[in-house]
Amino acid sequence: MGFSNDISLSQPALGQDIQLGMLYDVRTSRFYGGVSLWDNSVVNAKQELDEAQVQNADFVLSDSLEQARESVYLDTEGSLNLDLKLCSAIGSAKFLNDRKSTTHEARLDASCTVVRRTRRIPQEVLASMKYDQYLDDARYNHFVAEVVEGGSATLSFVRACSSADEARKIAGELKVSVVNVPVNGGDKVEFSAKNESLFDDVKISYSGAIAENVSSLEDARRVAGEMPKTLGKQMNALSCTLLPLSILDRKASRIIRSLDSGLVTKTAAALKDGNTAGLMLQDLISRDEFEQEARRLLPELRDGTKDENTNATALRNAVKLFQQRTGIAKRFIDKKSNEANVLETTLASLSAEKFENHLGALKVQSLTGGAAPRLFLSLGGLSIGIEKHPLQASIESGTECHGLEPGRDLRLCRSSYRDPAPPDPLFYRGTPPSPTTCLRS
């Protein structure tokens, strides 16, 4: 990790109302609204304008949140700040705050951005500060020297899926259905009418500076058609350039440390794994604790006056512990998913062989006569992979089934068929079994 005192920064506005001269703290990613070294009337009256009716207008399609963030030039560190809620995206960028609501989902974001102008503080104004006392305030280390303005909005399409394969398939179909077509020198998004049923289970939302009620495909068509014209009239902050206070006064130099990109990436990856595990296992309570610790440590790591080794070690330990916990949860889930898949396959084959499913709805029937019963013997845990159930083996050998080890996933019990709380799961065909040894899973 190196020290960087006099760095300039360029970053997306994330929907915030950013004004020229506004002060900023790079350690906490916070803009201080209403705090400036100059009067707004002076800055706005003498600002340099690089204006055009439309500098650029296009739609950008992205099929993941990571890709959408990259398209607005949000780097790994900025993305991590969003995930840790060190900063937030609002208005036209609020969709960048989204998190997956299901383990597997197909996503498509269609973003339209119209750049109108770029404003800068001219050189002569930089030297005529009115509120230079803020230079001595350690909270501030940068100021807004340039703002790019225009309009931006995004239509988001999200559909919950049952598997990763289905998510990839649906995402591809969504991208094909949302067709990008240039019209009269500009761009617009059109929706293919060939597969409208694809959108039946899709959650559609809109992110923009001006609120729009978008909940259906018809709403999305209407808003998408109006986007370029509507956004061409807006003058909202899209991005900004931040300069260090040290260019105004060397005494205002702050010690800002550049974070280790590997540590940032590892922290971001750990948080992503934790979110996935949290969706798979809702009671993963350690996630909030990890976020709080990371939110506390990242600003201190950026602060050059704080001990680097102590804070970096603390963050590494927090990441390592969190990765261990999420690793345990994911291994548990993988094991249970495998068991569920085996049982699902088994139940399907039993149903195909005309076994009857009386789970939770056993009926009193004749205990004599009829064909030999067909009994489903449950398997679970360590017994999933065995070829023959112990009770089946004992039936074939004509001996009683004894000696099942306690603590195993199989347990024999004595139970009357007329017991009001019958054992489960029980599948049979023909005449139900007489009161006998049965299996409780």
Automatic annotation (TrEMBL):
InterPro entries in the cross-refs: Cytolytic_pore-forming_toxin (IPR052090)
Lineage top rank: taxon: Eukaryota
Protein name: Neoverrucotoxin subunit beta-like protein
